[in-house]
Amino acid sequence: MNKILELDARLTVSLRVAENPGALRTLAAILAHSGDSWFWLLGLGVVWFLGNAYWKDLAVLFAAGILVTAVIVMAIKFTVRRKRPVGEWGSIYRRTDPHSFPSGHAARAILLAVLALGAGPAWLAALLLPWSLAIMLARVAMGLHYLSDVLAGALVGALVGLCILIALLGWV
Is the bond leading into 102 cis (omega within 30 degrees of zero)? Predict the structure, then answer.
């Protein structure tokens, strides 16, 4: 297990750009924030308020998925209690949630992509899938997560998304 954790730490450091000023760091910072739950819940509220019945249903499905995923992620985080990588960037995340495993941002992003693949329009899934992968890389690049944190988060998000699609929509 120590060898796996050492490899995880090495790969994580190789992806890190948080301390390097420039366009790549700026892009990573924007992407790292773009998966915040408050941002998505606010946006889904706007979609629900302004949308037709289809978009209202989709907004409710996405919001419910975000909330279910958050509960599962927090339960795992407070069980595992893995500290975030050392760093300065993202102090709000470090203060409000000192645990890194699994990544809630990765779980949420992949959840949304899976729900879009199963219940949304194809164009939305085509946007959310690459965006979710970019968020995963950005969270590592900005020093908030180890690579294994985002991979585990992605697995959680994919499983929750599939369970929701199967349970609520009869999707297989």
Answer: yes
103 is in which domain, residue-wise?
A: 22-169
The pTM (predicted TM-score) of the whole model is 0.90
Q: What is the largest CA-CA distance in the chain?
A: 52
Do residues 89 and 144 lie in contact, with contact meaning Cβ atoms separated by under 8 Å? yes
Q: CA 61 to CA 127: how far, in whole Å? A: 18
Residue 145 lies in a domain: yes
Question: Does residue 138 form part of some domain?
Answer: yes
State the Cα–Cα distance between residues 108 and 127, nearest whole angstrom. Answer: 15
Phi and psi at residue 103, to the nearest 5°: -75, 120
pLDDT of res. 101 = 94
